[in-house]
Every structure is written in structure tokens, then in C-alpha cells.
Amino acid sequence: MKERGNNVLNLSQRLLALARLVPQGSRVADIGTDHAFLPCYLVKEGIASFVIGVDVHEGPYQAACRTVRAYNVAEQVEIRRGDGLTALMPGEVDVVIIAGMGGSTGRDILENSPQVVEKLKKMIFQPMNGADVVRRWLSEHNWVITGEDIIYEDKRLFVVIAAEKGERTALTEEEIHYGPLLIKMRHPLLQEVLQKDIEAMQEILKQLAKSQNQESRVKVNEFTRKIHMAKGLQEWLFAAKQ
């Protein structure tokens, strides 16, 4: 819930989880900023020194501009209409937040602006799906995952990932799909993520069973393997509680 009252911003738990990962004094870009609640919160709370909110659509862009005016933070928050990181110049910001979109979209945003990515110190993601796509890209491009969390809000599970530059870190398939830090800390919501994935993949298998072509058989093998991996991780988490 995001409200304006006594000039105080009340962020959702999902956005607060992102804010907690922003280093003090950073210059930040929020990609897909929507109403710009997060940029305004970051500067009003003294977390970020400057924030650029970017949105590709006219409606959210105008809404973001109104929010900035309402909270009187125009000197520290700039709203731009643009596509991903193409709205930024290399070195303009230290931290980029890419939240509320699919993992494949987030990856494409990074791929389209390598010069901007090169100058970043930290990236923070909240993919609506495809967290494995984000983790795989990070692993292959010398970014180390330094923070992960799972947030339950509005009857949904949201995964948050933070990464900083470092030496290439090889991740196992389990870590790519379910997070090296989430697994290491045995996050209390990881069981729910696994169960949700297993049920979704089992439903896909039912649909694939109706087809007998070669492509479907390949996908059956792929999803069967992924279900086996997820169930194995479930069993490990359960055993750790005993």
C-alpha cells in the first residue's frame, strides 16, 4: 500500500525490501518506476542522494511526475520517459533497480545498455517471473549475488535479488533456479516457492502429455528433471528442520 499522508510515504513490503538493499548515499535509477513512490521514499529517507525514475509509458511517466511534485523532491528525483537503461548516460548512477517485470525483460534491458551496466556498482532486481534468467545472466557476466529475499504480499511471493561486481561465480542449477543465498539461509518461504513451482510444472506436464511430437517429448524430459530437482531441494529443506 502506498499512500500520501502528512507527506509521509508508506511503501509496500515489496518496495521496502528493495529500499533496504540500496547503499547509503547512492545515486540510483529505478527502471519501470510507475508512480515513483520508491524514488521519493529513497530521497526522503536519506538513503539515496539522487534518483532517476524511468518509465517507457506516458501514463506512468505523468503519474511519476505528479508524485515528485506532491512530495516536493524535484531537486533530488528526476523522471524520464525512456526504454530501460537507454534513458541513462554511463556513470550517471551507481545503483539500478529493475523491478516489477519478467526476468527475460530485465536481462534484455541489461543486454541493450552494456556501457551503462559497466559503470554500475550494484543492481537490484524483483522479477515477476524468470528469476533464474536473472541469476544466470549475473553469473555469466561477473556479478556476484550479495543479497536475496522472498516477500509474501497480496497472496503472492516476490523474489528480490541484489548483485555487485566481482569475479565470475559458477552457480549450480539449483542455485540458478532458487537462489544461492535463499538456499544457504534456508529461507522460510523457499518451501512455498518450490511447491508453487512443482505444481505449475506438473500442470505443464499434463498438457504436454496430450502431444506426441518430438518437441513435446524434449520438454517433458526437461520439466521432469526440474520437478525432480525441486523435490530434492524440498526434501533437503525438510530434513534440515528435523
UniProtKB/TrEMBL annotation:
Keywords: Methyltransferase, Transferase. One of its GO terms (biological process) is methylation. SUPFAM superfamilies: S-adenosyl-L-methionine-dependent methyltransferases. The keyword Transcription does not apply. Gene3D superfamilies: 1.10.287.1890, Vaccinia Virus protein VP39. The keyword rRNA-binding does not apply. GO terms for molecular function: tRNA (adenine(22)-N1)-methyltransferase activity. PANTHER family: TRNA (ADENINE(22)-N(1))-METHYLTRANSFERASE. This is SAM-dependent methyltransferase. The lineage of its organism: Bacteria, Bacillati, Bacillota, Clostridia, Eubacteriales.
